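dude i think i finally got it to work??
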Amino acid sequence: MKVKFLVPDINTKQFAKDFSWLLHCLKLELKSLSNIGTEENSESLVFQYKKNKKFPSINRFLSICSFFHSSPDSFLSAKPNWIECDVDDISKFSVYGKIRDTYYVIPNNDGPYQNRENHELTEEPDIEFFTGFHFYKDTDKNQEKNEEGKYIYRFPSINDNKTADLIENILAEYKLTIKQLSTLLKYKQPVSIYSRFKRTKPWTLDNIYKLSWVLNKPIQDLIVVENQEETCESHFEPVFFLEHYPICYDRRIEMEKVYQRLSKKFKKNDYNVDV
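look at this
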């Protein structure tokens, strides 16, 4: 079957913009994030993140998410593209509909779309509508105050082998081949996928982000982490933090703006998106 998957690239420019804005609105200095997590973040690295000169490694990224008590999905913005791939079995995928003999797979927060395999679309879904898509998943409490008034932070570190085992088991359920994965993850040669299965190279954040949309699963459901505890002073003024925190990560506000821009072209019922 001919299938078009909506697959995201990480919008690093938007990440840098959001990250820079967070540092500004919470009055955080670069050094506040230079010593958190399982991998050291120098002030120079943090500066490069906010200027879009460098993107954090997966462990550094997870530490930043944990620091701001955010799920990985809500901290990422997407640049989605349609990727065409032949698939034998579409029953596990989030099929939104089809145009003639081409099926369209689009992620959905409420689980895979149901009974839409034979739903005839009048035109190809507009990618712009989904640039603000994020999975919403609660995060574990990552900090608490001890008796001395200091904060105990729990910073995650990805377990590469267990994550590889988890992803391999999930991919087996979806019956995706090495060739299909190479296409969906934008690798020219299948050797890159083989290296993940042979455990000679770890799955990257970019890989996992793409898979999360293909498989319709939040990033947290595709990784295995181990937490490291650190005790330190609070990095921000708590009152100021609580005042601004809900604004920072309610991406539904962004999605509502996108919907308003496109409402003249599409009916609301055409897209099952939580706005």
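The chain has one domain: 2-77+135-253.
im so relieved honestly
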